[in-house]
TrEMBL record:
PANTHER family from the UniProt entry: TESTICULAR SOLUBLE ADENYLYL CYCLASE, TRANSCRIPTIONAL ACTIVATOR DOMAIN
Keywords, comma-separated and alphabetical: ATP-binding, Nucleotide-binding
Coiled-coil stretches noted in the UniProt entry, renumbered to this chain: none
Protein name stated in the entry: LuxR family transcriptional regulator
Domain of life according to the entry: Bacteria
InterPro entries according to UniProt: AAA_16, P-loop_NTPase, Sig_transdc_resp-reg_C-effctor, Tscrpt_reg_LuxR_C, WH-like_DNA-bd_sf
Lineage: Bacteria, Bacillati, Actinomycetota, Actinomycetes, Kitasatosporales
PROSITE patterns: HTH_LUXR_1, HTH_LUXR_2
Length: 922
C-alpha cells in the first residue's frame, strides 16, 4: 500500500536524495532499505515518477519469493523489455543472452561475462534516452540475478543508466554484500504519522486515532490499513484487540490479520485465483510490471480488487497483488488440500518449464508417484548445471520420497547425498544416506561416499577414506547383479582423489591393480584422472591431448566434471586455456551451487594466476578460498589454500609469512599422511630459502621431495621443483647432482609431458651444461619456447642464470640485455629479493644503476598484456574477449598506457613497445 507521490509526507530528506540521484549526470546505483510497510515502495514510485518527468525510460521489476531459488529468474524480468536491443549487440554478447533467455543451448555464462554483457546492453538501450531500473523486493531475487545486478550496479559510472533497489531490512540477501550505496528508510516521525493519518483517514474518533498511532509506530502501511479494519469490524474503540489481534504479535503479522479478514470474505472461485497467483509468484506493489507468459494470470478477480487486495497493472491489464503481505496471507489462509490443488493446476500451466513444473508437481503430490519423482530428478539435473546444487539436493530428496520402488528411492537418496557433498553440506549428506531404509543402506556406495567425503574434507583422514572406498569398489566389482555404473564411477573418482592427496606409492599401485580388474567399467575420464593425478612423470605421455579432447567434448557438464578435468590440466600445465571455463563455473556455483567443488576451482584459478604472474589476484583468490573453507570447516581445503598462499609468499620474498604457512600446513598434514600437502610445505621451504639465497637450506628442502637424478614416484612436486633442486645444487657445489637431475628430466621425457616442464628441463640442462654451445642452445630453447611468456617467474630465473653465464663466457656487455629483462620481470612481479640479486648482477655487468627501463615498471601487468595485444592488431572487442574484459575497460587501459609510453595513438604502440628492453617478455 502506498500513498500518492503528491501527498507523500515526512520524506523530505529521502525525496531530496532521490531527486539528486535522478538528476545526477552519471549513472549510479542506490539501495533503499527498511522494514516491511515502512514506505519503500512509495519512494520507488516517487523516484520512477521523477525519472519519467526527466525523460528517462523507466523499467520496473520485483523479486518474488516463489522464484528466489530459480537462477536468473529476476534477471529475466529486468531485461525482458530490452530484448529488442539484444540483436544489435555483437555475436559474443548476443550468445550470452540467448543462453540466459533459453533461446539457445550452452553452458550458463559467468557473473563477469554476463555482467559485462548486461552493461553493454544497458549502455546501448540508454544511448538515446537515459534509463532507470527500479527493482522492488530485491531480497527475493535469486542469487544469480543479485550477483549480476551487483556487478553491473558497481560499474554504472560513465553511463546514462541508474539502478534503484528496495530491500526489506529483516530479510538477508546477496545485496547485503554488493557494496552499493544505501539510503535507510526509517519509520515516520510522530508529526508525520499524524499528518499522514489525518490526510488519508480524516475525522477518526480520537480514541481510534490514538490507538492507531500507538500501534503503527510510524509504519506507513499500518497507518493506512488499520483504521478501516477497525471500522469494518465494528469493534469498540477502546478494544486493543481491534488493532493488535493478540498481545506481542509483530506488526506485519497484525497486518496479515487485516488482509485475512478481507480474503475470507471472498467467494471460493476468487480465493482459488488468488491462491494460484500467490503460489506462482504474481507480482505485488507498484513495481509489479512483467512480461506475459511467465506467470499465472488471475481472472475474474474484480471482487478482490474492490476489497483492496489487488491492483490492475496499467501496462498489461493483469491483476497484481497490492502488497507482498497480501500474497503471503493468501497462502497462509489456504488449507493443505487447497494448496495442493493449486499447485497441480500450476504444474499444468507450466508443463513446458522443467524446473517450475517439477516444483509445483512436488508440492501437489502426497503419495509416491514415479512420474513426479522422475520430473523432479530431471529438474535437479537442470538446476545443478545452472549453479543450483543446493536446490537440487532438496528436489532429489523429494524425488526419493515420491519414489515407488525401494531401489529408486535409494538411488535418488544417493544422488542427493552426492550433490550435497559437493555443495559442502556434509552433515546433510550423511543424514540423507542414513535415512535410507533399504537393507544394507548403511553400507551402500552412497553411504561410503558420504562418510569418505566427510572424513577427507573435514579431517584429512586419507587412510580411513581409502580403506572404505576400496572395499566398496571391490563389493561392486564382485556383485553379479546389475552393474551400478554411476555409483562405481563415483567411488573410483573419489578413490583417485584420495590417492592424490595421500601421494603414497603403494596405495597407488594397489589402485592401478584394482582398476585393471574392472576393465572397461572404468570410464575414459577416470582413466585420465588415474594417469594425471598420480605419477605424471611415468604415466603422463599423451595425457595433455586426452585432457584437451575431454574438455572439447564436454556438453552441459556438471561442475565436478569441470573441476576434475581442471586438476588434470594443472598436472600437465595447460590450465590457463581452461581458466575462463573454470571462472564461469565458479561464478555460477557461488552461494547456491557446489561449494566444495568451488574451493577446488579457486585453488586451480589461484595456481594459474601464480603461474602467469598475476600475484595480487592470486593472493585475493587464495584468501577467499581460505575464508570459505574455514567457514565450512573443510580443513583439508583450508590447509590446501594455506599451502598455496605460503608458496606465493615465498616467491614474493615474504619469508616470515611463508614459514608460518609452511609450519601450519606441515604440522597438520604430516601426521595424517597427506603427502600432497607435505610436499607443498617442502616446496615452500625450498622456494623461501632460494629467495633468501640460502642454497644449502634450499637443497635440503628440495631433496625432501625427490633425490637428485630421479623423480620420486607419485610425488607431484618432484617434477615441478626441477629447477629449484638444480639451482640449489649448483650454488652449493654439487655440480654432479645438478647435472644428473637435469639429464634425468630429459631421460624421463618431461618436455613431452607439459609446456612448463619443457621450459624447466631446457633451463636445467642449460644451467648444468659444461659446453658453452650446449648451454646457449638450451637457454635459447627455454627462452623462446611458446609457453615461456606465460611463465614469467621461471623465465626470469632462467634469464638471470643465462645473464650470469654470458658475463662469464662472453663478457659483461653481452649479459646486460638478458639481465635487464630478468630484473624488469622480477620488479613487475613483486619479487624484491630476486630483483635485487638481478640488479647486483647488472651492476657486475657494468650497467649503470638505472639501466633497466623505467617504462615497464610503470605499466601494470594487465596494461602490458593489453598493450601487446593491441600492438598485434587486435581490436578492443577482440582483446576484451581474450582477457574477459569489456571493450570499454580495454579502451580505458589503453588511454592510461599511451602517456606512460609517451605516445598519442594506437599506431605508435608497436614501435614504443619494441624499444622497451622487455618487449618480448609478455
Amino acid at each position: 500500500m502506498e500513498w500518492d507521490a503528491g501527498t507523500m509526507v515526512g520524506r523530505e530528506h529521502e525525496q531530496a536524495v532521490l531527486s539528486e540521484f535522478v538528476t545526477a549526470a552519471e549513472g549510479r546505483a542506490l539501495v533503499l532499505r527498511g522494514d516491511t510497510g515502512v514506505g519503500k515502495s512509495a519512494l520507488l514510485e516517487h523516484v520512477a515518477t521523477l525519472a519519467a518527468g526527466g525523460r528517462h525510460r523507466v523499467i520496473r521489476a520485483a523479486g518474488v519469493e516463489a522464484e528466489s531459488e530459480l537462477p536468473f529468474a529476476g534477471l529475466h524480468q529486468i531485461l525482458y523489455p530490452l530484448l529488442p536491443h539484444i540483436d544489435r549487440l555483437d555475436d559474443s554478447r548476443r550468445q550470452v543472452f540467448d543462453v540466459v533467455f533459453g533461446r539457445s543451448e550452452g553452458p550458463p555464462p559467468s557473473v563477469m561475462t554476463l555482467g559485462i554483457a548486461v552493461l553493454d546492453l544497458l549502455s546501448l538501450a540508454a544511448s538515446q534516452q537515459p534509463l532507470l531500473l527500479v527493482l522492488d523486493d530485491g531480497q527475493w531475487l535469486d542469487t544469480s540475478s543479485i550477483e549480476v545486478c551487483g556487478f553491473a550496479g558497481r560499474r554504472l559510472t560513465g553511463s546514462s543508466v541508474k539502478l534503484v533497489v528496495g530491500l526489506r531490512s529483516d530479510v538477508s540477501s546477496g545485496f547485503d554484500t554488493a557494496a552499493l550505496p544505501q539510503l535507510p528508510v526509517t519509520t515516520l516521525s510522530k508529526k508525520a504519522s499524524e499528518q499522514l493519518l489525518d490526510l488519508r483517514h480524516p475525522g477518526l474518533d480520537p480514541v481510534i486515532r490514538r490507538l492507531v498511532l500507538d500501534e503503527a509506530q510510524g509504519n506507513a502501511l499500518a497507518l493506512l490499513e488499520l483504521p478501516p479494519h477497525v471500522l469494518r469490524n465494528n469493534r469498540p474503540a477502546d478494544d486493543p484487540e481491534a488493532l493488535a489481534g493478540y498481545p506481542g504479535v509483530p506488526l506485519p503479522q497484525r497486518l496479515q490479520q487485516v488482509y485475512g479478514d478481507r480474503i475470507k470474505a471472498l467467494g471460493d472461485a476468487v480465493r482459488t485465483e488468488l491462491l494460484r497467483g500467490a503460489l506462482d509468484g504474481v507480482g505485488a506493489g507498484a513495481a509489479a510490471r512483467r512480461h506475459h507468459g511467465t506467470r499465472y494470470r488471475m481472472l475474474d478477480a474484480e471482487e478482490a480488487a474492490a476489497s483492496g487486495l489487488l491492483d490492475i497493472d496499467p501496462l498489461s491489464g493483469d491483476f497484481v497483488f497490492r502488497h507482498p503481505l497480501v500474497r503471503s496471507t493468501v497462502v497462509q489462509l489456504a488449507t493443505p488440500n487447497e494448496r495442493r490443488a493449486a499447485h497441480a493446476a500450476l504444474a499444468r500451466v507450466h508443463r513446458g518449464d522443467v524446473e517450475r513444473r517439477a516444483t509445483h508437481l512436488a508440492a501437489a503430490t502426497v503419495d509416491p508417484d514415479e512420474e513426479v519423482a522422475a520430473a523432479l530428478e530431471a529438474a535437479a539435473e537442470s538446476v545443478t548445471r545452472r549453479g543450483g546444487a543446493m536446490v537440487a539436493v532438496s528436489w532429489l530428496t523429494r524425488a526419493a520420497e515420491l519414489s515407488e520402488r525401494p531401489e529408486e528411492r535409494s538411488r535418488r537418496l544417493g544422488d542427493a547425498a552426492f550433490v550435497a557433498g559437493h555443495a559442502g553440506l556434509l552433515g546433510q549428506a550423511r543424514q540423507l544416506v542414513g535415512s535410507d531404509p533399504a537393507p544394507g543402506g548403511a553400507h551402500s556406495p552412497a553411504s561410503v561416499i558420504a562418510a569418505a567425503y566427510a572424513a577427507l574434507y573435514e579431517h584429512g583422514d586419507v587412510r580411513f577414506s581409502q580403506r572404505h572406498v576400496v572395499a566398496a569398489i571391490e563389493n561392486l566389482r564382485d556383485d553379479s547383479g546389475e552393474d551400478p555404473h554411476e555409483a562405481l564411477t563415483r567411488l573410483i573418482n573419489l578413490l583417485l582423489a584420495i590417492n592424490q592427496y595421500a601421494s603414497d606409492e603403494a596405495a597407488w599401485k594397489r589402485t592401478h591393480a584394482l582398476l585393471d580388474t574392472l576393465g572397461d567399467r572404468v570410464s575414459a575420464h577416470s582413466r585420465i584422472y588415474e594417469d594425471a593425478w598420480g605419477d605424471v612423470v611415468r604415466r603422463g605421455a599423451g595425457v595433455r591431448e586426452r585432457v584437451a579432447s575431454a574438455f572439447a567434448a564436454l556438453r552441459e557438464p556438471e561442475p565436478w566434471d569441470i573441476t576434475r578435468l581442471g586438476v588434470a590440466a594443472y598436472h600437465v600445465d595447460i590450465l590457463s586455456q581452461y581458466r575462463p571455463l573454470l571462472q564461469r563455473a565458479l561464478d555460477r556455483e557461488s552461494e547456491t551451487g557446489a561449494m566444495a567443488t568451488s574451493m577446488t576451482m579457486l585453488h586451480q584459478i589461484m595456481l594459474d594466476q601464480m603461474a602467469v604472474g598475476e600475484w595480487d589476484e592470486a593472493e585475493r583468490t587464495g584468501q577467499r578460498c581460505l575464508d570459505l573453507a574455514t567457514a565450512r570447516h573443510h580443513m583439508l581445503f583450508a590447509h590446501h589454500a594455506r599451502g598455496y598462499l605460503g608458496l606465493l609468499a615465498a616467491m614474493r620474498g615474504q619469508s616470515d609469512r611463508a614459514r608460518r604457512f609452511q609450519a601450519t600446513v606441515d604440522a597438520w598434514a604430516r601426521p595424517r599422511g597427506v603427502g600432497f600437502l607435505t610436499q607443498i610445505a617442502d616446496a615452500i621451504g625450498t622456494t623461501t630459502a632460494l629467495s633468501e639465497g640460502d642454497y644449502e637450506a634450499a637443497y635440503l628442502h628440495a631433496i625432501g621431495i625427490t633425490r637428485p637424478g630421479s623423480f620420486t614416484p607419485y610425488a607431484h612436486q618432484a617434477p615441478r621443483t626441477l629447477l629449484d633442486l638444480v639451482e640449489a645444487a649448483l650454488h652449493t657445489g654439487r655440480h654432479e647432482q645438478a647435472r644428473a637431475h637435469a639429464l634425468a628430466a630429459r631421460q624421463a621425457r618431461l618436455p613431452h609431458i607439459s609446456p612448463r616442464l619443457a621450459v624447466l628441463t631446457h633451463g636445467a640442462l642449460a644451467m648444468t651444461a659444461t659446453d658453452p654451445g650446449e648451454a646457449g642452445h638450451h637457454y635459447h630453447q627455454a627462452e623462446t619456447h611458446p609457453a615461456a611468456a606465460a611463465l614469467p617467474y621461471e623465465l626470469a630465473r632462467i634469464r638471470l642464470a643465462h645473464g650470469i653465464h654470458l658475463r662469464h663466457t662472453q663478457g659483461r656487455k653481452s649479459a646486460r640485455l638478458t639481465l635487464t629483462l630478468a630484473t624488469d620481470t622480477f620488479e613487475r612481479l613483486g619479487a624484491p629479493t630476486w630483483a635485487e640479486r638481478s640488479r647486483a648482477e647488472l651492476r657486475a655487468a657494468g650497467a649503470p644503476p638505472l639501466a633497466s627501463s623505467a617504462h615497464p615498471a610503470t605499466l601494470t601487468w594487465q596494461e602490458r598484456r593489453i598493450a601487446d595485444l593491441a600492438a598485434g592488431g587486435l581490436t578492443n572487442k577482440e582483446i576484451g574477449a581474450r582477457m574477459h574484459l569489456s571493450p570499454r575497460t580495454v579502451s580505458s587501459h589503453l588511454y592510461r598506457v599511451f602517456p606512460k609510453l609517451g605516445i598519442t595513438s594506437r599506431a605508435a604502440l608497436r614501435d614504443a613497445l619494441g624499444k622497451l628492453p622487455d618487449g618480448q617478455d609478455t
